[in-house]
């Protein structure tokens, strides 16, 4: 399993795709957070990162599909998947290795954004006037959100040999998982079950963790959500195997 994880991680880091993808993510998030008037924290006038944490989930809908789209699609397109599954390693270990390597890349994309916290802390009046507990909770929420989206990405990549199609499927599923249940609950037909339906979506749980309060129900939700899509990936790849 470690050999597959290492191969996946270093093959991505040895290509320009990783640096371009992460670079675009950091560039766009920086422009949205510091430059564009409608979303700039300098225009808002408060020393907080709430705007940044509300924007990143939408950027994740493009970053994570770009990272995960090659996980199985490229293996099957190039014919190397057959060589991979004939190794003395179980299918779930292959899936876990690809999932963890992709999740590490998401984490690498998030780490440089910590400089935003430092900058806002210095800009606050008095200096350091920022809710650190809320920031830590929001970063944990982002990591769990990234884990959920990565599981969707691995599943999407197992559906097709075409990386572009895998990207589109993943982006669509991530958007629906994050926002779809909230919008669907507003339909008059589902008004009677509005609250339970909203709880099925990721946004409700991500927002709760971003407040700085770690509820075991939210943690269980993200773990269960990620495990479900990894299980679906195993079913899909097991059938093709």
UniProtKB/TrEMBL annotation:
It comes from Pedobacter kyungheensis. It is found in: Cell membrane. Residues 50-181 form the ABC-2 type transporter transmembrane domain. This is ABC transporter permease. One of its GO terms (molecular function) is ABC-type transporter activity. Pfam families: ABC2_membrane_3 (PF12698). GO terms for cellular component: plasma membrane. Keywords: Cell membrane, Membrane, Transmembrane, Transmembrane helix. It is a multi-pass membrane protein. The chain crosses the membrane at residues 12-35, 55-73, 94-118, 138-157, 164-181, 219-237. InterPro entries: ABC-2_transporter_component, ABC2_TM, Motility-assoc_ABC_perm_GldF. The keyword Transmembrane helix applies.
């Amino acid at each position: 399993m470690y050999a597959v994880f290492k191969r996946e991680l270093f093959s991505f880091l040895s290509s320009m795709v990783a640096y371009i993808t992460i670079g675009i993510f950091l560039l766009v998030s920086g422009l949205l957070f510091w430059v564009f008037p409608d979303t700039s924290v300098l225009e808002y006038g408060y020393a907080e990162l709430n705007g940044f944490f509300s924007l990143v989930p939408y950027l994740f809908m493009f970053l994570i599909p770009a990272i995960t789209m090659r996980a199985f699609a490229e293996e099957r397109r190039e014919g190397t998947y057959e060589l991979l599954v004939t190794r003395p390693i179980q299918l779930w270990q292959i899936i876990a290795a690809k999932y963890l390597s992709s999740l590490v890349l998401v984490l690498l994309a998030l780490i440089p954004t910590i400089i935003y916290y430092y900058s806002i802390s210095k800009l606050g009046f008095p200096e350091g006037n920022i809710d650190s507990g809320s920031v830590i909770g929001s970063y944990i929420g982002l990591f769990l959100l990234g884990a959920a989206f990565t599981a969707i990405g691995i599943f999407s990549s197992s559906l097709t040999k075409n990386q572009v199609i895998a990207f589109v499927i993943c982006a669509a599923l991530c958007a629906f998982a994050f926002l779809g249940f909230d919008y669907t609950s507003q339909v008059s037909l589902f008004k009677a079950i509005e609250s339970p339906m909203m709880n099925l979506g990721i946004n409700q749980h991500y927002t709760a963790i971003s407040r700085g309060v770690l509820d075991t129900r939210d943690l269980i939700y993200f773990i269960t959500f990620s495990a479900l899509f990894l299980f679906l990936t195993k079913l899909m790849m097991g059938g093709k195997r």
